[in-house]
Design a protein that fits this description.
This protein is mostly beta strands. Helix content is about 5%, strand content about 55%. It has one domain: Maltoporin, Chain A, CATH 2.40.170.20.
Length: about 725
């Protein structure tokens, strides 16, 4: 706590000692000829780079989605719904709310066993990513999201433990009336029922938005029932001309989220709805309760000074039976985020500097027991939440307290020596201290210990604007990704404490790109090429033990990743919009020596040249939307995912005679369709919609579990599913 206070005081002191006031530079999209521009285009401003700036000045690949992109006639259960149109972003919908989406940016994150790894998630200025790098999606409320910014590529120079990039979500803006209520009801296939109630308004200088949602779902597969309730509340308060305050509180409670687990290739092809009997007998599932909140204070001076400080905290409880073990976790986390920026004229050039520090803390109380399962006579015959009461506890296997402290000061300089050129240089130092206290000493061994991981992450970028609607950029960046406490604690040797051999990933990246706009045709393009290497890449694996499905991790020596990303959008008329995105990813191992045991003999295999599992080489998206001026709308989109390998060996390992196809997730093509209409009925409005996902009933696997035991890699996706909903919004412009 002293560290948090000192960091805030230090940054406040620096702000007061800043240079004398000068006028904030303004940007005009006019040429130097003095002629009136033919097109007036409002500059697209993003905040993912720790302060607001036009996207054409940013030497990164950045995307921004608005409220319609996120909410329009969508179910709101998966980030795949919102992010599918972005290149370089792959959201593998596992159709399993117990495990959540597997999200990767430029292939980083595809190894996650559960939750999200390898990238930073932030919602309304509060990290959803813990100090150890693990993110949970439970608190994300897509039903009230108004904007999503995605920064593709290494972002450790700004965010620390974030090798793949950043996803930042903002709650939608409250309405200008004192009070508005917007209920929404949605029902669909596989027992889907979802209710939302959104209240928002503005009273004087205070704005508020509260959204409550409740979900029931049986799921496409057996043993996939889910029940949850969530609340998201955001308030914006103007304290003075220069000071504002944002308050955030969100809560999530899931009394049961059942886990149907993965299947081998043959069963995934012929009986995709099945859940293995062994998984059901072990009561594989989770129940969780999480509350998170924070306060952000923003200062905007009359000059260019900007100061922002956020204090946040989180409490999470998790009860998670898996085959072989019962995990009981209680987590407390929090931190302080500060950023200060200012610009000045230096030798005829504009210089903006941004500095700040993040302090993160995490405390986990972890207990694990053997899983004796539920009595055979109750399997498949009891109410979902009764499973937890029927579980038979085995012996205590683990009891330890885990703590993480992360400190990361950073600085970034942005120099504009000429109007068309922007030079960006930045860096951050991160230091993470992992501590474990072994409370289970019955085995006669004290596995307590400490591990420290740190790195300096520099970045340099260049942006050039040959035309006011065209921007070219390039950057060199590094990144840093620590193992999580779960990855450190899960040891194949079944010992307590932290794995002493697991090391952090270290990333180096070079990127070049082009962004542009053709105003006369409302045509935009964004193209990027990158080359990155990862040393000590963390790779998941399972062991051939039928009593457990725990996921363990090991380091690969080195991987080489390179890719191309392309996004095009076109709005030929006011009612029509088309979009296209293409991703090419070529990820291979350059050095990865694996040891396996075959017939009690140790075998070593060098996997150099193999594809990294779980990363599709190509992904394509195409979508078209039409909105009629009287309120009707229609949208269709197509996605194609290339085939990819499910294990490090890219086929059968030593001693296996299975065919190669059992280790490949086949390519697939899906088409989704949405139709709806909005009408003003006088004192109230109505929005009725219907959607069909996987219109042509394609049989495919939405995700895989890399290196799963028993070659059970595949997580089948739903076939053709439908949903329909009705919302009651206040008509646009009505007060």
């Amino acid at each position: 706590m002293k560290t948090l206070v000192l960091a805030l005081i230090s940054l406040c002191a620096v702000a007061h000692l800043a240079l004398a006031q000068e006028r904030q530079p303004t940007h005009q999209d006019s040429s130097n000829t003095g002629e009136t521009p033919r097109f007036e285009v409002e500059p697209l401003v993003i905040t993912a780079t720790r302060y607001a700036r036009p996207v054409y000045r940013v030497p990164y690949a950045v995307d921004l989605l608005n409220q319609d992109d996120i909410q329009h006639a969508e179910v709101g259960l998966s980030l795949e719904e919102a992010l599918r149109s972005l290149p370089g972003v792959v959201v593998q919908n596992r159709y399993n709310l117990s495990q959540g989406d597997r999200i990767s940016l430029r292939g980083i994150g595809s190894r996650a066993a559960f939750g999200v790894r390898g990238l930073k998630l932030i919602q309304d200025g509060i990290p959803l990513t813990m100090a150890d790098g693990q993110s949970q999606l439970n608190n994300i409320d897509l039903g009230s999201a108004g904007q999503v910014e995605v920064l593709r590529g290494p972002s450790s120079s700004l965010y620390g433990n974030a090798a793949g990039g950043l996803i930042s979500l903002q709650t939608q803006t409250a309405v200008a009336t004192p009070f508005q209520l917007q209920p929404r009801l949605l029902v669909g296939a596989d027992g889907l029922r979802k209710w939302e109630g959104k209240a928002s308004g503005q009273v004087g200088r205070h704005q508020y938005l509260v959204n409550v949602n409740s979900l029931w779902q049986e799921g496409y597969r057996d043993f996939a029932n889910a029940r949850s309730t969530g609340v998201n509340a955001v308030g914006h308060h103007v304290l003075s001309q220069s000071l504002s305050l944002t308050t955030v509180l969100n809560a999530y409670n899931a009394p049961y989220l059942l886990n149907p687990s993965s299947l081998a290739k043959a069963e995934a092809d012929t009986a995709p709805t099945n859940a293995r009997l062994a998984v059901q007998r072990q009561g594989a599932s989770k129940k969780t309760n999480q509350t998170q909140g924070g306060i952000t204070l923003q200062y905007r001076g009359r000059d260019s000074t900007r100061l922002e400080a956020t204090v946040y905290g989180l409490g999470r409880s998790l009860f998670n039976p898996i085959p072989g073990r019962i995990i009981d976790l209680d987590r407390k986390a929090g931190g302080l985020r500060t950023v200060w920026s200012r610009s000045a004229q230096v030798a005829g050039s504009t210089l903006r500097w941004t500095a700040g520090a993040d302090v993160e803390v995490q405390r986990d109380a972890r207990q694990e027991f053997g899983n004796g399962g539920i009595p055979a006579q109750h399997v498949g015959k009891v109410h979902d939440d009764a499973i937890f009461k029927l579980l038979t506890y085995g012996p205590r296997l683990l009891d330890q307290a885990e703590r993480v402290l992360g400190v990361g000061p950073f600085v970034e300089l942005e120099l504009t020596p000429y109007p068309a050129w922007v030079i960006t240089v930045g860096g951050r130092y991160d230091r993470y201290r992992f501590t474990v206290d072994d409370r289970f000493l019955d085995d006669g061994v004290d596995d307590s210990g400490t591990r420290t991981m740190d790195q300096v992450s520099p970045m340099v970028g260049l942006t050039y604007r040959p035309h006011r609607f065209i921007s070219l950029y390039g950057n060199y960046a590094t990144a840093f990704q620590t193992p999580t406490t779960t990855e450190l604690s899960n040891r194949p040797t079944r010992e307590g404490g932290f794995n002493p051999d697991l090391r952090p990933e270290r990333v180096r990246s070079v990127e070049a790109g082009l962004k542009g706009l053709w105003p006369a045709r409302q045509f935009t393009w964004d193209a990027a090429f990158y080359f990155l290497t990862i040393d000590e890449m963390l790779i998941p694996f399972q062991i051939d033990d039928p009593s457990t499905e725990e996921v363990f991790f090991r380091n690969a020596g080195k991987t080489r990743n390179r890719g191309i990303e392309l996004r095009l959008t076109w709005a030929p008329t006011p009612g029509w919009r088309a979009s296209f995105a293409y991703t090419l990813m070529d990820f291979i191992f350059q050095d990865f020596l694996v040891e396996t045991s075959v017939n009690n003999r140790l075998t070593r295999s060098q996997l150099k040249g193999n594809d990294v599992p779980g990363v599709p080489p190509q992904h394509l998206y195409a979508g078209v939307m039409y909105k009629h001026r009287r309120g009707g709308y229609a949208e269709a989109n197509l996605q194609w995912m290339d085939r990819y390998f499910a294990n490090d060996f890219n086929g059968p390992g030593p001693g296996s005679t299975k065919p190669v196809r059992d280790f490949i997730n086949d390519a697939y093509l899906t088409v989704d369709l949405r139709l709806g209409g909005q009408r003003d009925l006088g004192w109230v409005g109505i929005d009725v919609f219907v959607g069909v996902n996987n219109l042509f009933n394609t049989r495919y696997n939405g995700s895989i579990v890399p290196n799963a035991a028993g070659d059970r890699f595949f997580e089948p996706a739903a076939g053709r599913t439908w949903y329909t909903g009705v919302g009651i919004p206040v008509p646009h412009g009505r007060r």
